User: Fold this.
Amino acid sequence: MITVLVLGIGLGVGLWALAVWAFPPRPALGVVLARATASPAPPPILATDDTGWAAKVGRPFIAPLRVMGLPGERLSRDLAVIGRPVATHLAEKATLAIAGLLAPALLQLLLMLGGLSLGVEFPIIGGLVLAAVGFVLPDLQARSDAAKLRVGFRHALSAYLDLVWITLAGGAGVDSALNDSVGVGHGWAFAQIRRALEAARLTRTTPWDTLRRLGEELDVTELAELAASVSLAGTEGAKVRASLAAKAAALRTHQITAAEGDAQAATERMSLPVMALFLGFLAFIAYPALTQVLNGL
Assistant:
């Protein structure tokens, strides 16, 4: 009975996905008018790269997944940070889910060719489990990669704040301090800041505006705060050297606190295998005595 129910649910979901792909729903009239009358948004500062065989295989499943509301807003920001297009991510999710769904069936077919069989339930249950894992795995990987890049960006931002502060103390202007300081550093974070300043120069906008947009795209509030402070210096003539030094010190303090918390969490995780080994050793010692007691009853 359970097998029949699982097969029926899988068939219904498959037919629904096929119907959505073949006949995509039309957007509401209000949405279409809003898109037509809205002013064009500036191009994103973060660059994306559309590569991978999984993205090409799973491309027909992008439309049904978009209809389901995937990915969410938080995951979309993470994908922008790691430079992966939303369509590529959805295609990879579909490809891994299909591969996980078919893997147990292929294993069962190979075993049947050798004269063995694992039953009917194993391909169904195993395929559903692997499909769910393959569907969720790209999301977890994207969140992990984006978190690592944000941590590295905050480390680089603290150094960039010190460089800007030193350049301002040397008598340079705000624009010169921002552009000269970014040319000193290397790596992904400095490349993104350099890209934002270059976009400001090409589009003839203020550098603090592009830095603010970069902070919103990266979901790094510290960069948006830097842009707000620099905008005061650029528009109102405020002296921001002390403010930048304070922000750099606060950012380093926050990073040290986060590093200490991660170290303590890692120490606690290291105690779990030791505890499991100790419990297994106790069970190994107590098993003969417990067997003797139970056999004597």
In short: Residues 151 and 258 are 10 Å apart (CA to CA). Residues 241-296 form the longest helix (56 residues). The chain has two domains: 9-29+48-144, 151-254.
